[in-house]
Amino acid sequence: MTSPLLSAKSLSRFYGPQRAVNKLDFEIYKGEVLGFLGPNGAGKSTSMKMLSGNLAPNEGEITINGYDLLSQPKQAKAHIGYLPEQPPLYKELSVIEFLSFCARINQIPSAKRKQAVETTIERCGLGNVRKRLISHLSKGYQQRVGIAQAIVHTPAVIILDEPTSGLDPIQIREIRQLIKDIAQEHSVILSTHILPEVQMLCDRVKIINQGTLVFNDTTQALQQQMQSSSLLVTLESPPTLTTLEQINGVTLVTALSNTRFKIHYQPEQNPTQMILEAAIAQQWQLTSLSPEQHSLEDVFMNIIQQETEQLGEQA
Fold it and tell me: Which of 31, 53, 311, 81 is nearest to 184 (CA)?
């Protein structure tokens, strides 16, 4: 089996008596985009700082592309690209000057430095602003420069902390496409609070709450939780609620109006076909029938709420 490019085991961080991160396990493989989610104060930023080598853990170990981040920090950090929420830009420099500086501090050999910068400028769509001062660029272009400094040395793992924060819709779309392109050659850890961004970009999702990992699965598994075991039905000549509840598999019927109903059912016994047949046979005048969908926000909040309740019971 392929080894992960980044692996963290039992990662913990304390601030005084407060445990900000509690025994976090983390891994990402080549070509993946991993979404890292959590409410404010959950421990996301602390985790990202530890994974990028900017903050030492109190417990645990981190391996980057085979190098131990604690005992071999220089070798390990050479394989990391990091974009914090506030991009570390020298705004008095032009784009090409700044990226050339980043190439030097990342120890790209001088013979390969110019090509590395040119390739990065092209990949990040910065060609038309290459000679402009960073301070004169829009926020969207400044974010592109921030991503460019994270990939100029072609690291194995790129860590992006809220890369679309504060951008307008057009800029967000452009940055998301850039992340998709980058992910073809790198592994990406994406910390974001924008849940649709996870659906669009990520292969796997980790959710952290109160410093503890509460969800670790594929994006598809998260989306499956959005599937509800209830139907929304409109009947212009409806029967009694008792009649609807007697349909095989139905567990509860809630009247939303005189003609609109929410029909709950057992997940393994979807009554859609039987409702259709009964509506036709008994002339209920069915005008709409659709599965109720939970939003990704609903699923996220449900996961967080369940874990918070469990933590409260344990306490």
Answer: 31
- Tell me, what's the pLDDT at 26? 87
Residue 214: HSE in the Cβ half-sphere, 13 Å Cα cutoff:
25
CATH numbers and ranges of domains, the chain? 6-218 (3.40.50.300), 227-293 (3.30.70.100)
Position 89 pLDDT exceeds 90: yes
- DSSP letters, 224-248, are HTTEEEEEEEEESS---HHHHHTST
Give residue 194's pLDDT.
78
Summarised one tens digit per residue, pLDDT across range 142-200 is: 999 999 999 999 999 999 988 888 888 888 888 899 899 888 888 999 988 777 788 88
For residue 300, pLDDT beyond 70: yes
Distance CA 4, CA 14 (A): 26
Side chain identity, residue 270: N
- Give the pLDDT confidence score for residue 1 in this predicted structure: 58
- Per-residue pLDDT tens over the stretch 200-236: 899 999 988 888 888 888 888 877 666 667 899 999 9
Residue spans of beta strands (DSSP E) within the chain: 6-15, 18-28, 33-37, 59-64, 67-68, 80-83, 157-161, 187-191, 204-209, 212-218, 227-235, 250-255, 260-265, 286-293
Four-point Cα dihedral 85, 88, 89, 90, nearest 10: 150
For 31-50, b/e burial (b = at least 16 CB within 10 A) is: ebbbbbbbbeebbbbbbbbb
State the chain's maximal CA–CA distance in angstroms.
81
Q: What is the pTM of this model?
A: 0.76
